[in-house]
UniProtKB/TrEMBL annotation:
This is Uncharacterized protein. It comes from Trichoderma simmonsii. Residues 22-42 are annotated as: Disordered. The lineage of its organism: Eukaryota, Fungi, Dikarya, Ascomycota, Pezizomycotina.
Length: 357
């Protein structure tokens, strides 16, 4: 693509990060208490099952390979519920890391419909490996103390789970729990023998129920904890501690690909693979909206109490902005968007209405 095109920087990254080489964020991994890439699921035999993993190499298997298993007739076999929950847990821990690193303003920003639509312009990229092309559902969403809402449009399971996970894992108290009930929305040659519901509850617990029908109804309830992300802590000498993603200064020219890789850095993350800003969906108005929203996640002096960004989180947000394309960075500087007061996260905008309001 010639650099004479006005928006070449949206999809080209001449000096950016190449996944084929080592990067400054390559060592970051999502925290996990439930899964290991080398483990094998060993569910218990009771009706309420929990995830456990075996480290014995003789039993090791990559669960992602189960996605392509077919029956002799050519029909794709449905995934074992424990395999499905493992994939969901991995995705949930990526979200926990994102929310912990960047703070509540980023969490609220990424659940806005226009921003989410730009990040995941092709929702089919969010399909879970174990479900493959059969990952298409409608969703009935219930938030604690609120009425259920039926979301009739069909989309992959993770598309529906994104908002609930971000809000649930955010410390600003925007939600204390969700229940998502999924209904299969397309006819494929993979017939799920069970219906799926996911509950986010407690401190950081994700619970999946697989309800089998037929003459002998059965419910398998499988739960796992989502470990909270925590920044590294300096030792007694108070030496500044940085994340692996920040240890090497960024030297690229900047492009949306590098920024999104920094936002969700774990190699193999399904979110990272699905996030793409392409020339087909971007125009001047949309680009300004996205850039303004990302710049607005930085710390401001008039933040409302629910949206307080820590200094180390503010550093992560500013590092993200450094990876944006040059024209986007010029726009941020020109409009003084970093730390701008009076925005949607300000105390003035969020205070309770007064007598004259």
């Amino acid at each position: 693509m010639s650099h004479s095109h006005p928006f070449y920087y949206l999809w080209e990254c001449p000096d950016g990060v190449d996944d084929s080489s080592s990067t400054d964020y390559g060592n970051i991994t999502a925290p996990s208490t439930t899964a290991s890439d080398e483990g094998v699921l060993t569910p218990s035999t009771t009706s309420t099952r929990t995830l456990a993993w075996m480290d014995d190499d003789s039993h090791a298997a990559d669960t992602s390979q189960l996605a392509g298993i077919q029956s002799p007739a050519g029909t794709l076999l449905p995934p074992e519920p424990t395999v499905l929950l493992t994939e969901i847990c991995k995705a949930a821990e990526d979200v926990a890391q994102l929310v912990g690193r960047f703070g509540p303003k980023m969490a609220a920003t990424l659940t806005r419909s226009p921003i989410k639509a730009m990040l995941f312009s092709d929702d089919t990229q969010l399909r879970l490996p174990s479900l493959s092309y059969a990952d298409s559902f409608t969703c009935r969403l219930t938030e604690l103390w609120k009425k259920p809402v039926s979301l009739g449009v069909k989309a992959p399971l993770l598309w529906w789970l994104w908002d609930a996970l971000v809000k649930f894992l955010d410390h600003s108290g925007r939600s204390t729990g969700f229940k998502l009930e999924f209904t299969h929305a397309c006819n494929t040659d993979m017939v799920l023998p069970y219906t799926i519901s996911i509950t986010l509850k407690g401190l950081r617990e994700i619970e999946m129920t697989a309800a089998y029908g037929g003459n002998f109804s059965e419910r398998r309830i499988i739960s796992a904890a989502i470990e909270a992300f925590r920044f590294p802590v300096a030792g007694f000498d108070e030496t500044p501690v940085t994340l692996a993603v920040d240890q090497t200064p960024y030297r690229g020219d900047g492009c949306y690909g590098d920024a999104l890789d920094y936002l969700m850095p774990r190699p193999g993350s399904i979110w990272r693979s699905a996030m793409k800003i392409t020339k087909e969906i971007i125009n001047t108005k949309e680009e300004k909206r996205l850039v303004t929203a990302l710049a607005g996640t930085c710390k401001a002096e008039d933040e409302w109490s629910f949206f307080v960004v820590m200094e180390i989180q503010d550093s992560q947000c500013k590092n993200l902005l450094r990876r944006l394309p040059p024209e986007a960075r010029k726009f941020i500087k020109k409009e003084h968007l970093v730390g701008k007061e009076g925005g949607s996260f300000s105390e003035m905008q969020n205070r309770p209405p007064g007598p004259k309001d």
